[in-house]
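Progress note, sequence design subtask.
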């Protein structure tokens, strides 16, 4: 699976939420997420636990650079009834790989066409916006970058607010 991503700091949280809701034509889906990152030699690996105890193991590769960038990822989902399996997996991964850290956030998800707009409130970091343009098989990275830049402009996100890394990296730097 592939998408093109943009991530940025948000200075006017209520304003960007209002614009995102207007663009999507619907109120957001609010999602509680607790991500545990593991030490891996390549890419990133995290187990995301949701507020309802379901979980997703996420492996992804993305260059740390500003602006729209390609992200390759794989997902393994656990339902609420499989929450004990996800806890056991977390324990095994921590024992084998070690825990890099945790990112806890509340995410507001807005859908605009093939793009997920996330307005995140990250514990100990603040407010952020993330765009994920999910690429169709026939679409190029450049197609996704055009879509991402257009939405970035409509949301009023300035280039100087773009960040080039994951929340986990920001937490480690703090």
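Output:
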């Amino acid at each position: 699976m592939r998408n093109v991503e943009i991530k940025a700091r948000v200075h006017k949280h209520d304003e960007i939420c209002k614009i995102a809701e207007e663009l999507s034509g619907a109120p957001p889906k609010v999602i509680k997420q607790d991500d545990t990152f593991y030490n891996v030699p390549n890419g990133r690996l995290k187990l995301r636990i949701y507020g309802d105890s379901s979980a997703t193991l996420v492996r992804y590769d993305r260059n740390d650079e500003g602006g729209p960038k390609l992200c390759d990822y794989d997902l393994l989902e656990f339902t609420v009834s499989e929450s004990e399996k996800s806890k056991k997996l977390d324990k095994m991964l921590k024992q084998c790989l070690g825990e890099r850290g945790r990112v806890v956030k509340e995410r507001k998800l807005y859908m605009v066409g093939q793009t997920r707009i996330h307005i995140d409130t990250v514990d100990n970091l603040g407010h952020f916006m993330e765009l994920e343009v999910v690429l169709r098989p026939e679409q190029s990275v450049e197609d996704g970058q055009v879509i991402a830049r257009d939405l970035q402009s409509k949301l009023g996100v300035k280039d100087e607010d773009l960040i080039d890394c994951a929340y986990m990296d920001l937490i480690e730097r703090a």
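The chain has a mean pLDDT of 95. Work on this subtask will continue into the next period as scheduled.
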